[in-house]
Every structure is written in C-alpha cells, then in structure tokens.
Amino acid sequence: MLSNSQTYNDVWQHCLSRIKEQTSEEEFVKWFKPIVPLDFDGTTLRLRVPNESYVYHIERNYIPFLRPIIHQLFGLKTRLRYAIPKSEQAPVAVVQDADITPINKFVTQTDTANIKNPFVIPGIKKIIIDPQLNPGYTFDSFVEGECNRLARSAGLAVAVNPGKTPFNPLYIYGDSGLGKTHIAQAIGNEVKLRHPERQVLYVSMNKFQAQFQNAAIKGELNDFIHFYQMIDVLIIDDIQELAGKDKTQNAFFNIFNHLHLSGKQLIITSDKPPVELKDIEQRLITRFKWGLSTQLLLPDYETKIKIIRNKAAKLNAEVVDDVVEFLAHNINANVREIEGALSSLIANASFLNKKITVPLTKEILKVYVQFNQKEITIEHIKNVVCEHMKLDMAKFNSPKRTREIAQARQIAMYLSKQHTKAPLTSIGAAIGGKNHATVLHACKAISNLIETDKMFRHLVEEIEKKVVGN
Q1: Can you count the helices (H) and strands (E) in the chain?
Q2: Confidence band (pLDDT; 50, 70, 90) for 331?
Q3: What CATH fold (topology level) applies to the domain 378-468?
Q4: Is CATH 3.90.1210.10 the classification given to domain 301-365?
C-alpha cells in the first residue's frame, strides 16, 4: 500500500522488482522496462506504453500475476489505465482500462497458411495448435486397476475442469511401460472433447529441448516462450530429460510460472518422483510438488486379467480363461510387455494354425518373456523327494539311518543347495539336524553318483523336474 512518504514512481520501481522475479530477462526488458508511470490518484494508476500491442500483450499474458502485485503495493482498489502516444494510436484506438475493456481493436494477420516458424504468433488472431495427441489414448481404452486408480481418477478430474482443481501440476511417475503417456494423453483428448476451445499441447521433453535450441540459434527465444504461454493445457512427457540443461530449465521455469499463475493446467510425467530428480533446479522441483504426485505401479493379478482380455478383444482373438489366468499368474511385467507377449502368442498360434492352449502358450512365449518362478523351499524339496521315493515324511525326519532314508536325505540336501539360497547350516538343520560339513559331504557324494551311475542320474533328474515344476 502506498504510504505518504512514497511517490507513485518509487512504488512502481518496487513493482518492477517483483515483476523481474517472475519473468525472464528478455521479457522484462522488452515488455516492462519501456513502461513509464504517469499518475496515480489513489485509485487509478496511469501507465504510458509505447503502443497498443503492449497493452494487448500485457493483458493477455501478464495480468494474472501483475494484478496481485499492483493491488499489494498500490492498494486493492487500484485500476490500470494505459496512455498511448498519439503517433502510435490506430485511428479508432482510445486509452483503455485494463479492468473494464479488453484490447481488441487491432489489425490482425489473417493469412496464416505460410507461417513456417511454429513460435510466431500471427498478430492477434487466435491460431489453431495441433495438440500432438494420439486419438487412441483415451480413458475408455485405459485399463483401470488398483495399480493406477488414483492417477486415472485425478486425470479425469483435471480433464473435466482443467486448471481449477488442486491437481496442478498433475505429476505422474512410474517405470517405463506402465501407462504414463497413455493417461497423460487421455487427459488431453478428454479436454479437447469437453472444452474444444482450449489449446492443448503434448510434447516430450526431448522435443521441447530441441525446439528451445533451435529457437536460441535463430534468436527467437521470446517467441518460443510466448508460444508456450498461449497453451491452456500443457502436457510434458519425461520431465527427467530436463536434467543438466540449465538454460532450458530457465525457459521452462518461466513458462511453468506463467501458466500456473494464469490458471492453466500442467500435466507432467516422469520415471521418478520429484524428490529423486537429479540435476534439476530446486525451484522447479518445488513447483512440481505444488499439485498432486501419483505413482503408477506394476499391474496386480486382477488388472493383468483385464489387460489380457482387453488386448485379446482388440485383436479379435479367442483366449480361453485357462490361458488368461496362466499369463496373469506367470508374467510379472509392465503393461506394454504383457500386451506384447499376448500379441506374439496370438500371431504365432495363427501362423501355426493351432488353438491357443496353456502348453502352446508356454512353448511360444519362453523366448519372449521370463515366466515367474515359484520360490523353491527346502520343505518343498523334502516333500517331492519323499513322494517320488515313496517314503513317509515321519521316517525321513526320524533318526533312522537305513540306506534308503540316508540316500533320500542326501538327494534333498543336494537339490536344496542347487535350488535354494539357504546356507549350508540351514539346509543341514532342516534335513536331519545335520551340520554344514555333512551337507557338503552329501552334495559331493550325490555329484559323484550322478557322474558314474546312469540309473541314479535318471532318478535325480526325475526328482529335480518335479522340484522345479517342469
């Protein structure tokens, strides 16, 4: 609030200091430094600007953060009026009031067909921006589950009311192949459906960086920044690629600030949560935390069932429940790999002219995916050995030392060493209460017999197949 000891020019200098903090140096020099305060009567602050385009540009791009600064330093009832030198006024132009009348009486450039530079704003005419969205990435085609429900729900809320929810920015993170890009683009497609007048743009950070470098080489950084400041919903994919790029970070900071202060929506994806980002300025990381950070996880069993059935339906393939359940139980992978495995299975079955069964699935997919291996325990090995050798478990665990029981224990010790991570002391304790030296002796004895006795080798191989489930 202006005090008696301050002049309006002094206060305007304070305003400029605040403005400088929230704009780039290029913006400040071009759009604010030329402004001259002319008068302040307690309610109206008159500013002289070079021409009418300044008025339009300031009202379109800076009023959301300029107004709070003016109100804080000059008073809540302060209104802006712009004075334009007569030589710079168009024949119909008059001094305008920022809080009452929008500036719209300018000559516009209507021929936009031959504009080559994507960052050139053609006069005042609203241009149509290609949102760079994949029409197939929608909420309807996104398979929802416990692993992604929060991200999907928040994304839909953002799409319904972009820029007006607490989820700004919406920061979606998780490993590759879990659906970050799908859900981010689904938000964009839904916004275009519900709010066709909104300017939506999806861009990867690598592409953003390339555009920035190109604009810097051509001396068009202001146009680059102003182009992105026109966007209503900005979707940035793979923000972690911003690491170590200081100049690009500065440009993105200014774009982020402007959009956020203007009530525009930002959606950001990353492979890491904000706190784990490296070589990115702290002021940016702080802003990434302003909204909602939500993680996408590996799909759970129920979600994998939905993904497999959804993909099979898209491919017009009949996949029986046994195969669906086998895949869901045995593939511990991301969404992309699950869908890829199913596509490979269906294609191979079609080429072979065979019905898709569990054995065929197992045979075909062994070169595409690594099936889950059930954890093999010492107890499981003991059970398999006793079952195959037709021994009672009570006898196996008893102090008896008949040749048959002793050999069964040695086979169990050998297989436990081969197929578990248990130390020798644990194996010995679980099988007859023996020490590690006894286990070592047993393993050596079984190895020697396997090499010298074909019948015995066949016996161990048959037991081993049952142990690993093959």
Answers
A1: 20, 8
A2: confident
A3: Chromosomal Replication Initiator Protein Dnaa; Chain: A; (1.10.1750)
A4: no
